């Protein structure tokens, strides 16, 4: 029996300054995995099995799992191309908590499409796959956005173009930066956290948003860490979402007092992230978050670097 297994890393959507258009993939510095994996095996009949720390939080019923929806979507796309359907079963290892702000649904979606495409000898190119991933992410979160699927798939820090090809651009990132990600253990629905946002923003906010993105990209390319971190603030979502995140303001105050370069909500939360330029600062922030931000036994934190590899086929 041939099996293809793909791992897709967790990601930080928005990275504070780039609502829906900027994302970053995460790799814990201790070498642990932080992401879901999906295996595709030859089989006469489709089935989906699940395991992993957060498998019991998935909606009951195979048909309600986003991985099954990816399978259906992929088969339809093969049919449109005139390619025979795949005869496979799938297995999801659900390591990321649902509604965490770590791109949990994106991780499952990306691992599923990547494994299906690899198993089928890669009938779809990168951009076509990314469009499929975005479509499925949109089905689950209320609107199509690529800031989790793109970094999880491509690795690194990615900027969305709004085009069909290329869907996303890979940006440089600072190798020296540590990214502390702390999940509180609560669940925040991305769809609900999107519904509470205003439908329109004033001129000043639009100008700040555009200026920040422009300055950030320029600073990344010139290697100007100070300028890059100075524009990592959120003028779109944070003020509306932080009421969903107990101890958010205290966490930021502590992180900044310790010397963190930036602090914000990861995706729609409740995970928060801090950027530090030394391991000792990252560790101090992590210790505080573990003691004060985590709310229950589901919570956890990791000190990460940017995962530059993105989704990959892994062995059994
Ligand atoms: N494999 C899966 N991984 C994550 N969520 C899934 C999966 N399959 C179905 N779901 C459902 O999709 C929704 C994802 O919620 P969302 O708030 O977008 O999570 P996240 O922000 O962590 O991606 C939840 O209602 C969850 O039950
Ligand atoms: N740009 C999206 C990102 C959502 O990320 P998630 O990890 O919470 O699904 C948003 O901010 O709504």
SSE map:
Layout: E1 3-9, E2 11-13, E3 22-28, E4 35-42, E5 48-51, H1 66-80, E6 88-93, H2 104-119, H3 126-141, H4 149-154, E7 157-160, E8 168-171, E9 178-183, H5 190-195, H6 203-222, H7 225-230, H8 238-241, H9 248-257, E10 262-265, E11 272-276, H10 279-292, E12 300-306, E13 312-314
Parallel strand pairs: 5-6
Antiparallel strand pairs: 1-4, 1-13, 2-3, 3-7, 3-12, 4-6, 7-8, 9-11, 9-12, 10-11
Helix pairs in contact: 1-2, 1-3, 2-3
The chain binds adenosine-5'-diphosphate (ADP) and the ligand N[C@@H](CCOP(=O)(O)O)C(=O)O.
Adenosine-5'-diphosphate binds next to helix 1, helix 2 and helix 3.
Tell me the number of strands.
Answer: 13
**Biggest sheet statistics:** 8 strands, antiparallel
CATH architecture field of the largest domain:
2-Layer Sandwich
Taken as a percent bin, the fraction of beta residues is: 15-25%
The CATH topology label of the largest domain is Ribosomal Protein S5, domain 2
| SSE pattern | EEEEEHEHHHEEEHHHHHEEHEE
Bound molecules: adenosine-5'-diphosphate, ligand LJ64HWYM
**Number of H/I helices:** 10
Q: Provide the gyration radius in Å.
A: 19 Å
């Amino acid at each position: 029996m041939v099996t293809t297994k793909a791992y897709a890393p967790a990601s930080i959507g928005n990275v504070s300054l780039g609502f829906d258009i900027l994302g970053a993939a995460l790799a814990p510095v201790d070498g642990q995995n932080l992401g879901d994996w999906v295996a595709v095996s030859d089989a006469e009949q489709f089935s989906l099995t699940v395991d992993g720390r957060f498998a019991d939080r998935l909606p009951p019923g195979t048909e309600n799992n986003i991985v099954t929806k990816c399978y259906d979507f992929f088969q339809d796309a093969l049919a449109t191309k005139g390619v025979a359907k795949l005869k496979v079963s799938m297995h999801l290892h659900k390591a990321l908590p649902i509604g965490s702000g770590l791109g949990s649904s994106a991780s499952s979606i990306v691992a599923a499409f990547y494994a299906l495409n690899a198993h089928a000898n890669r009938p779809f190119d990168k951009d076509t796959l990314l469009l499929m991933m975005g479509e499925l992410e949109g089905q689950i979160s209320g609107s199509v956005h690529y800031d989790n699927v793109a970094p999880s798939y491509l690795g690194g820090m990615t900027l969305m173009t709004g085009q069909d090809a290329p869907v996303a651009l890979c940006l440089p990132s600072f190798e020296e930066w540590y990214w502390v990600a702390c999940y509180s253990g609560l669940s925040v629905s991305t769809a609900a956290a999107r519904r509470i946002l205003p439908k329109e923003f004033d001129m000043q906010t639009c100008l700040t948003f555009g200026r920040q993105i422009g300055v950030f990209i320029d600073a990344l390319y010139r290697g100007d860490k100070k300028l890059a971190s100075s524009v990592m603030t959120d003028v779109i979502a944070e003020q509306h979402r932080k009421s969903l995140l107990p101890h958010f303001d205290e966490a930021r105050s502590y992180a900044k007092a310790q010397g963190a370069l930036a602090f914000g909500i990861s995706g729609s939360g409740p995970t928060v992230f801090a950027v530090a330029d030394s391991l000792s600062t990252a560790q101090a922030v992590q210790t505080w978050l573990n003691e004060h931000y985590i709310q229950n036994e589901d919570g956890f934190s990791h000190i990460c670097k940017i995962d530059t590899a993105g989704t990959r086929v892994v062995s059994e």
